[in-house]
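Q: Okay, next protein. This is HNH endonuclease from Phaeobacter italicus. I've checked the sequence twice, so it should be correct. Can you predict the 3D structure?
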Amino acid sequence: MSPPAETPPICPLCGRPIPADVDQSLHHLIPKLKGGKGGPTVLLHHICHKEIHATLSEAELARSYNTVAALRTHPRLAKFIAWIQKRPPAFRSRVTGGRRKR
């Protein structure tokens, strides 16, 4: 009899499971460059983490988007979340270019 399968963590941004074989990363809710080194972190899909940093500057993250709830209210991230939730947990894509113009 094999041990029960471990339940994968859930990405707090998109709400999808993060399987062990999928790229994942820790996001500092307050950027390290803005005093968040050693502060709270959340485990995200790598694609979700990349989208956060493609959308918001370190200053914006520290000042106004330093919780998952706040991140989810940003218009571009809300649109991304609605899009990514329709994809399987192992979905991979590249965020094109660098920070997009706002």
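A: Here is a summary of the prediction. The CA atoms of residues 7 and 17 lie 9 Å apart. The longest strand covers residues 24-28.
Q: Noted. On to the next one.
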